[in-house]
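Data availability (excerpt). The following record was deposited with the supplementary files.
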Amino acid sequence: MANPTVLVETSPAREREKGREKGSDFSELSRRIADAGLLRRRPLYYTVRFGAVALALAGGVAAFLVLGDSWSQLLVAVALAVVFGQLGLAAHDLAHRQVFTRRRPSEAGGLLVANLLLGMSYGWWMNKHTRHHANPNHEEKDPDVSPDILVWSRRQASKAQGLPRFIGKHQAALFFPLLTLEGLNLSFNSFKALRSPSMKRPVLEGALLVAHFVLYFGGLFTLLSPGKALAFIAVHQALFGIYLGSVFAPNHKGMPMIEEGTRLDFLRRQVLTSRNVRGGWFVDAFMGGLNYQIEHHLFPSMPTPALGRAQAITERYCAELGVPYHQTGLLASHREALRHMRSVGEPLRAAR
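Predicted structure:
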């Protein structure tokens, strides 16, 4: 199922198989997942994974220091774009308490990785991402589909003005070029959010963000000539943004949107708006487990290595209920997302 239309209201199935206790459809799936032991923490996995990312980051910094004022630094910029993408995935897992069960170590790790190493506000991103998980692809409540620059439904396209209206006409073609600015956009919004009343630790987060950019720009412009430093920043930030977009765009873009007033139970709200991406170990590593987007949305605190087993259980259960469950390949997922973006921009092109 790859349905770019708006979801209509649907009621959960009332009939249960004989012998099943009454309750929500999700509660039965949750019981099966818990019985399989898939919610327990995996400290060894995260020790190895985070250790590998830390070594890669240290290796990139070491290479940067050794190469000096050389155009070969652009290769380091490419490598560090991948490392920054993996750091973003690490911050995501920390935020969802997939690594630690307690709040304090999760927040401490998130602030270290997101603010200091990436230059992105952990508190701002947590607020935004929590709202996304509560109402994925909801036209009014999901900040990831708000029409700030791009439009995600024909309803949004019909109301678009200014920049979204201009870009929306050709947003499918412009999507990947715009992703080159995503890393800078995250940092810009992070600094902007420091004045928000919802920010719990603005001073701490601001200090860590400043420390990141002092180290980042200070190191670049101290060791490299201005031209090489600017080229490094352009390559690094552009590829970092494309990497992040390539990880997050396949998960929901092109899946059904939810209008205000539509009532769906938790299981259907998460499954019908999410897409899984197949591809084996490479896609698992590249997307940090977010290719199992359906299972991640149903069980946000589930450790990454358990998602594969959860996928088989969830797909079987959805088949029992008759709930559409969509998964496809990585390239196909991008085609579906871009096709949807082009489709919803059609009213804007027709209005010329």
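Summary of structural features: Residues 132 and 280 are 27 Å apart (CA to CA).
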